[in-house]
DNA sequence: CGCCAGGTTGATTTCGCTCAAGCAATGTGG
DNA sequence: CCACATTGCTTGAGCGAAATCAACCTGGCG
């Protein structure tokens, strides 16, 4: 850990991270408990937030930067499972299941992350049943998304999965240029994108070239320009609902 | 619906389905509410409990028989996602997420299934926060299992996934014979087993033959005899933790 | 008896993997 | 500042797993 990883208490969470989340049901006194116990820290790229197998100590709120959640496969390769952007929460699954972490969270771009210990969360959960109800809904939705993801992986081609990933990334790191085309910056290396799709980087390379030669999409470095996003994303919808 | 699908109220759930489940936290008065509102029914093989896209009306408790949870892939093929045995609950994910069903439940062997309407469940949840806490833990664990399943599908071979499935089925429909070998009855067709593994039935056929020629395992009809279960299951563990 | 669903088998193709080489951009130590 | 290593990415050749297509078997059943 470098010197930039300063530990400091902070009241930073109240306005930014509570509104519009499950924490919005907290009373002002509970918000006070929250803020008195939250600890914020800066992380450098490459720093580890938690490791697969660790006991879960609480919740992590990504305030800025980018965090990748990874798992090692049987051959020792890293598989990127999730990218956590500002506003995202990490570690609630093992916390609520009372299990250990099943994946590793690694900072991919200098980040500020706030931490709330699990004792405080359980205190808040016992004080305020509404918070539990919110978490319950959130977890059930995540379960649906996980099932969907599983089904997508076994039933769609790598190409369609890639188009879907572009559609998802678009919300996070895409912007529309004046001529109506969509531009997006891949936040991670192509190798990591490939691992998110469940393919090797070589296969991803070939996939990119294939799509590029069709004309709609242009790749240069980490920037992707999509001339006609509607048309491209329609291919994903068509693969899901082929009627 | 045939005449055997009689609708009848019943108090059947109290002893059998409550103990050892999340419902064990209910007070006796709450158990009364539960029992007054639960409706049990008999289903024939082939009957549909709910269909993908349906609004979720409540929870289903499988009392006897066998129910398959399926989804249609883009090419119109059925993928079997889950087998629900007596004691299993269906529909809690869409109920808690306040979403529609994302899969279809079809009875695969004559079954008795009890139903509790969602209003009652929400009433019980609001009366008893402990019930919510139990559901929260259950859902978070299911989320972990779903992630695990996803990871298994992308990182393990069909062969290893099949061995893992045998290991899971063993708990439900396996029994040890006098000479120490394990015997299990596949509850569904080979075609459906193949779909659970994410492969075609032809590929599954070849996989079975390959394993059979190695000698440890013998397949005849829906009966599988495993001479040395330890040795076979070790192959699964070795694939997961290859150190 | 013939039909037919479930299952098997073979031939061929497709998709993605492995291995290996090469290239461009970036970093680093002398 | 140059030589060299490193990292990320691409490309090609060959291979392997599973899909597809097609034929065929087999046992149950109307």
Features:
DNA-binding, alpha+beta, 7-stranded antiparallel sheet, 243 residues, homodimer, 4-stranded antiparallel sheet, disordered N terminus
What does this structure look like?
The first copy, chain A, has 243 residues and is an alpha+beta fold. The first copy, chain A, is 45% helix and 26% strand. Chain A has nine helices and eleven strands. In chain A, strands 1, 2, 3, 4, 5, 6 and 7 form a seven-stranded antiparallel sheet that branches. A four-stranded antiparallel sheet of chain A has the order 8-9-11-10. In chain A, a hairpin with a 5-residue loop joins strand 8 and strand 9 (182-185). The relative contact order of chain A is 0.12. Chain A binds chain B through residues 71, 73-75, 79, 81, 92-99, 102-103, 125-126, 129, 132-133, 135-137, 139-144, 146-151, 153-156, 198, 239-242, and chain B through 71, 73-75, 79, 81, 92-99, 102-103, 125-126, 129, 132-133, 135-137, 139-144, 146-151, 153-156, 198, 239-242.
